[in-house]
């Protein structure tokens, strides 16, 4: 239902999965996702596994079948013909081990980009939420350099986006930016409304 709503506005449905698992990958793609973000990728082996599950043969092992993604068979032939090229598979780097293996991960055939999970990544350095600590600054710079060197999209999640943080992310080389969280937008919007009402 979320994918239907997204598509109704001409946007592309992308899902961040809870696990790099063949069942999650298959069900999400069959439901109509046009992009996947695979969580906690720390090695090229994990990246290869995800790609195998997300791609149809000969590039992978995704099973064929009628599903919402191909209009339950009405668009079957063109859907399966285009899927390997059209569906983006992005690896989420959320741990220092993923940064250490970033070159191998990005070199995996079929990887379209990588996406930073900033809180988990900072936590793996023992500096949870300290996005400006030296370890994070070095890790993010290495990440961006690796993505640029291989022509891969570099993604970042800005939890509380504002003009300065968005401009900085773009200047640093990020080409996929997740802007905020729905629960943060709701909470902060409600807080502003309450402040305004109380002030009056």
Give a description of the structure.
The protein is α/β, with parallel strands linked by helices and 200 residues long. Helices cover 50% and strands 14% of the residues. The chain has ten helices and six strands. It has a six-stranded parallel β-sheet with strand order 1-2-3-4-5-6. α2 runs parallel beside α3. The relative contact order is 0.10.
Helix content: 40-55%
Task: Label the structural class.
Answer: alpha/beta
SSE order: HEHEHHEHHEHHEHEH
Question: Cα-atom Rg, whole angstroms?
Answer: 19 Å
In which order are the strands of the major sheet placed?
Answer: 1-2-3-4-5-6
SSE blueprint:
Layout: H1 2-8, E1 14-16, H2 22-30, E2 35-38, H3 44-54, H4 76-86, E3 88-93, H5 96-100, H6 102-106, E4 113-116, H7 118-124, H8 134-150, E5 153-158, H9 163-172, E6 176-179, H10 182-199
Parallel strand pairs: 1-2, 2-3, 3-4, 4-5, 5-6
Helix pairs in contact: 2-3
Give a quick set of tags describing it.
200 residues, 6 strands
In brief, what are we looking at here?
With 200 residues, the protein is an alpha/beta fold. It is built from ten helices and six strands, in the order αβαβααβααβααβαβα.
